[in-house]
Every structure is written in C-alpha cells, then in structure tokens.
C-alpha cells in the first residue's frame, strides 16, 4: 500500500506558475526514477512532485520536479534529474526537505490581501510600487510548516528586490529579505527603483550601429596600473582615458520612426532606477561618447551584455534566456541612486549599475558579473544557489576579460576581478588567484568565499580553453539547485562535461584541479562514449569495408589509459544491411572499478549508389541566403569543376573545388538567385545572394 500511495503522490499536479508548465518525453521516467529511489532520498509517501522546468542542452535533458503538498509548491524544495542523450538518468541533485509536514493548504487571505500586507510592512510611506507578484507556497518557518504567500516587491523608497513571506492563515509577516545580487557588498545602501515600461519592437526594426566602449577596461586596454592619468577623478575624462576606448560594431540596434535605441534581440535599455538619466535614444546609429558623458555607460553596458548573450547563443549553442521581458535582459546603466554597487533583480530579470567612485558600468567585469547572476538564475529555472552565485559571476566576468589576452600570466592584474572598478581607493576588488581552499578556507562571506570557486574554474579554463570551460560551466549550472554548495557544483560541472563527451584528459584536469581545491569529487566513473548511429553507402560490388572507429570513441577513466577494441574488427567486408558495432574499452586492472566497459552503435550499410547520387544526397550549401561567402560541402566533390549561373543563364563564376568542403567568395555578385552546377557529377543546387 505504501508503494501505491507514493506513485499516486509523485504524479500530483502543482498550482503555482502553471502558465509556465513544461513537458518532456522523460517526465514519467523521471518520476519513476524518484519513486525507485524513494528510500534512498527519504521521500515522504504523502509528498508530491510536479515537473516545473525543462532544460535541453548539449549535456542532455534536465528536469526539475517541484515538491508539493496538496498540490501547493514547497518553497525551495525540488529534485533535479538529468538524462543523457540515450534517455538514461546520469545525474541528480536535490534541495528536497523531507521534514515538511502535511498541512491544510486552503488560505484564509487572498493574493491581494497578501500584497497589501507586504506593501504596508515594507513600504509604510506608500512609495511607488514598480514590481509586485504573490504566489502561494508551503514554507518551512524554522521548525514549523506554514502556508504562506511569497510576495516579491520593488518600490521606490527601499533598496533591492524584496521577498516577503506572509502567513496565508494569520496574515502575519514571517520574514522580509532583499534577494537582489550585489557585485561587491553584502548590503546595499539606498538604491531606488522607478516604474518603467520596456519598449518591445518588431525584430525587423533592427539595424547595425557602432559605438565607443572600454574593452574590458581602460587599465587593461592600456596595460597600466591604476594611478596618474588613469584614475576616476570624479568621472572626468582625459586624453589617456579617451584613447583607451575602442570602436566596436553593434550588430543589432532598434531603429523605429527615425530613432535609434540600444535594444537588440538579447537586451534592452531601461531607465527604472534613479538617477533618471534617460534611455539615450538618438537620431544616429553611432553611439560615441567619452566617460564623463552618461551615454558612455549606456553603450558600454549594451555592448558587453549583448555580446555575451550572443556568444552564449550563437557560439556555445546554449539555451539561456530570461523568463521575463519577452526573453530580454533589461539594464539601467545609471541606477542605485548613484551608490557604489550594482545588482541583478531576479524577480524582474533586470540589472542596474551604480555610479559611486568609478562608474560600475565602465568596467566589463562588473557588467558581466551581474549578467552572470542572471545566467545562473535562467539555467536553473530560478533555483540559483547562494553558495556559488558570487563565484559564478566572478568566473563569467573573468572568462571574458582573460580571453582578450591583455595581461600576461606574470602580471598581478592577470587575476584581478573588477580591474578598473576595484583594486583602487574605491574598494579592494577580488581575484581569481585566491589561495584558500575548500572547506577550511571558507569565511562565511559569499563574496569572499566565491573566490575559491572562481579560482578553481579559471585554473581549468587555463588548461582546456575558454569555449569548452564556458559551456561546461553553463550546462553544469543547469544541474544545480538552491542548496548546491561549491563541492557539489564541481561534480555538476564535471558531469556536464562528461555528458558532452569532453576528452578524458579534460575530465581528468577538472578532477585534479577540483580535488586540489578541496572539493573531494568522486572518482571518475569508467564510461565509453561511442559514435552516433551511422548510415553509409557500399562501394563498387556492394561491399563496405568496415573502418576502425576507435578514434571516434572516448573512454573516460581515472587515468585516461583505456585501450579500445571493436567488433566486428576493422577491415571486415559488409554487405548492405543493419549491423551492431560493439566497442570495448579495457582499463588496466585495479585502476577503475570496472575493468571493461562495452557500448554499441548501429551501422546501416546502404546499397551502392552512382557518383551522381552520392554527391546529390550529401551536398550542402550554407549559409543560404548568404551575403559574402558560401560553403559547399559534400562527399566526392573534391577536384570537381563548379560553375555558378544567374537567372539569365549567364555563367558568373567558375572554380575547381579543392576538397570536400570549400568556401566560395560571392560578395562580388549582385543580389538574386543563382544556380551552382557541378560539372563532373551533373548536380545542380540553388542559393540566394542577399
């Protein structure tokens, strides 16, 4: 009977945020997994779970199951289940609280009552409310389980992003807390939010533009230390600071009704905090300012936020977007009433930057640190951990700054975090060369302790490179939860890298550095990654000679010394048909728990085709449409003669293809539709020149 009750409970449906409910083919498999592990996870048989968030990425599909009581979500309590590309559970984490009691979940007060009570408690002067929402939760208040409304408020006369819990039975205010993320102070002094209405315009309004920015900051650009002409000096500019600017392309800016605005497919400017300096729209697409002009911080923030999100989407291929604002990050380059701090507001997916001492939005490290808090929030579906958040932000900022190669590893500033905003008379900044290790080096300060995590990540970055580390970092975040500590985050990042089939040497590098940091990650599980299922074509005589696929396999073991063999063996002649190829990895005895690991993939051998058919079936032209260059890729096209014809049948270009993948310059062609003809195989394909 207990098992039956648990299964029924596991599939119960929650009541909060149902408008954002997501689905997955693995939803039932995840629930069944939790049911099978109920004893190990100490799951209370009366507790329910509802799928609330799905992340699909290169590291597999990650499902988040919200813990519920009588269909009401339990605040901060969930299970994370990660599936491989073969739909097998390979990783889990959780913030599940089994001690939550079964309570009556019928509220006495309604949502509007809760909003009014929270506003009166936070905002007795009744200043303007700029953001508010209230959701019903089961909440653990010390040792008591209570029914509450979680109210999020942003008001004009109080700092930050306020989280207020109101007892849904008694109307009592249980707690009031600022949950905004600040880049270098535990508490902010006096920021001030003002209501705004972001302008969302059609994508067709986007054009390109340019601007002058600091990349990443004037000290790094000029390769000098803070001092002399390179000081804040009350935001004054000079010839040296002007020369430290660089001109950059802004790939997308909004152009509507003759007005250019700092808005793209990824981010949009807002003026939602004091001082109210405007949104810097103008009649030209050239946004050139010096640092003593307020427009400089606007274009500097826009450039770095847009570039970072564009890199995540277009280069790394990671799905990471805000839940609010139509998927855009809203930023205010002049906020917090001019305080020397900056913050990310998770309730509204907004970022604001202060102006005390060096303006925060003049330093890419500050901009990207605050964006890093957003990335953490979006990759976890709103379940970012406070134990790793500051280190995550520091890593994301340093990852970009170091990629510019402005400092040598022997330079102290090579490791500086906030090189321009900090490490000066304003404040001390931070470093990614922090000597303390985990857990003995923790001092119970999230900003200071975050340096341990960021330092470990940057040490791995220096070995395996930026793109691989950034992708493992982001996909690893998707496996974490609100209670994840640094040691658990290390396991999550490594697991993401394993899921993405990183070379064994990279996994070992992560393991060694994480262990040297004190995270004591578990030994590497011996796994063998094999190629995806393949379809090939038999050669003349309808025979396909089996190649050696060992080089396409990846055996991940503790010492990266496994030997890979194949069955059927390389050189075997195969007739058309479907075959199972078995790859076997042997690890030296005693070094791994399992000395032998097998894995398989399917090989489909198709009957022999003529050359024309092979070329036609494999030929790819991209991008299409194209502006300046196309790539022609296919099987057996090397040494073929290629001709391009316009719609009038006139030959406009001819060339001999040198390999099976060729780049062809087409910038000299007029806009229109063209036909590519491969002379040897008599194959044609069309493309559009824009």
TrEMBL record:
Secretion system C-terminal sorting domain location, by residue? 621-686
Which positions make up the signal peptide?
A: 1-21
- GO MF term list: metalloendopeptidase activity; zinc ion binding
Write out the GO cellular component annotations.
extracellular space
Q: Which Gene3D superfamilies match?
A: 3.10.170.10, 3.10.450.490
- Start and end of every PepSY domain? 109-176
Classification via InterPro entries? FTP_domain, PepSY, Peptidase_M36, Secre_tail, Zinc_Metalloprotease_M4
One biological process term in Gene Ontology: proteolysis
Q: Per UniProt, which keywords does this protein have?
A: Hydrolase, Metal-binding, Metalloprotease, Protease, Signal, Zinc
Boundaries of each FTP domain copy? 48-93
Source domain of life is: Bacteria
Protein's UniProt keywords contain Isomerase: no
Which NCBIfam families has this protein been placed in? Por_Secre_tail
Descriptive protein name? T9SS type A sorting domain-containing protein
Q: In which organism is this protein found?
A: Flavobacterium amnicola
